[in-house]
Fold this sequence. Notes:
This protein is α+β, with helices and mostly antiparallel strands. It contains four helices and four strands. It has a four-stranded antiparallel beta sheet with strand order 2-3-1-4, covered by helices on one side. It is globular and about 50 Å long. The two termini are 28 Å apart.
Amino acid sequence: MKIRNGFVSNSSTSSFCIFGVEIEDSDIPSVLDNLGIKYEKDEDGMFDFESEDWCEHLESIEIPYIHDYENETTYFGFGIEDMEDDETKKQFQDRVKTKLIERLGPELGNNNPSWILETVAS
């Protein structure tokens, strides 16, 4: 029997654990409206996740995110590897929540940040 150790490069899923928030794709336009950010719609009249404005905004807020196309959800947050060496769990969670509110707005940032463990298709 052959046993494989380490990373499997042909995996079709990715797992992650973050402290943050999740938002359904259908709610993103209202969040952007509240932040005063313009966005484009695709040919079906739906929010365009590939639009230049959206991509620029994601880059500017400096909050890691994962978009799950299959479940139509976007996750924003920070992993445990982002915790400072001298930071307690509560301090880390408070810091992340503050960043979420500052950069995503109070509507999304106050959306009960929690630990999220998910697997998404890649």
